[in-house]
Sequence to fold (83 residues):
Amino acid sequence: MADGTGRLNGKVVMAAVHEARKGIRCNAALSGMTATDAVRNSLNDELRGMLLHHTPIRCMAAPEESVNVALCFVSDGARFAAD
Fold:
């Protein structure tokens, strides 16, 4: 998973640099595992613990947290944010 995320982040950075002078912002919200009903219902405690052990903040994102990050990126308040 980390390798795929790293590749995606690299592509986002390249796009951000390439498109910045055109006024186009490129960012990625890479929240990792999100605590949806499907995820909560399909993971037992042992597997959840193993996956979260490899997550830097040791918790899953709530769906609304991912939405809030995306809303921030599209707002004028994030005009200088570039991944």
Summary: The helical segments are 2-19, 37-42, 45-53, 63-74. Residues 15 and 21 are 11 Å apart (CA to CA). The first helix runs from residue 2 to 19. The chain has four helices and no strands.
